[in-house]
C-alpha cells in the first residue's frame, strides 16, 4: 500500500524519484491531499535544480579512494548547494 509514510521513508532514504511517484499516486486518488501537493512541489523543484548535475563528478564520487578526493568532492557539493 502506497502511503504518505512510505513516501516519507523513501524520501529520507534518498529515493526521491520513488517518493515522488508515490506522492503523485496519492494525489490522483485524493486531489485535496495538501501533504502530497507540498511534497510534489518540493521534490519537483529539487529535481529541476539538479537535473543537469555534472556526470563527471558523479563518476569521480564513485571512484574516490583518498582523503584529498573526498575533500575535493565536499568542496564541489558545498558550491553546488550555495
From TrEMBL:
<protein>
    <recommendedName>
        <fullName>Tetratricopeptide repeat protein</fullName>
    </recommendedName>
</protein>
<dbReference type="InterPro" id="IPR011990">
    <property type="entry name" value="TPR-like_helical_dom_sf"/>
</dbReference>
Amino acid at each position: 500500500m502506497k502511503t504518505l509514510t512510505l513516501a516519507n521513508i523513501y524520501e529520507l532514504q534518498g529515493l526521491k524519484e520513488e517518493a515522488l511517484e508515490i506522492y503523485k499516486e496519492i494525489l490522483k486518488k485524493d486531489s485535496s491531499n495538501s501533504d502530497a501537493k507540498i511534497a510534489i512541489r518540493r521534490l519537483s523543484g529539487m529535481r529541476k535544480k539538479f537535473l543537469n548535475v555534472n556526470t563527471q563528478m558523479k563518476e569521480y564520487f564513485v571512484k574516490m579512494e583518498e582523503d584529498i578526493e573526498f575533500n575535493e568532492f565536499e568542496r564541489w557539493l558545498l558550491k553546488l548547494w550555495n
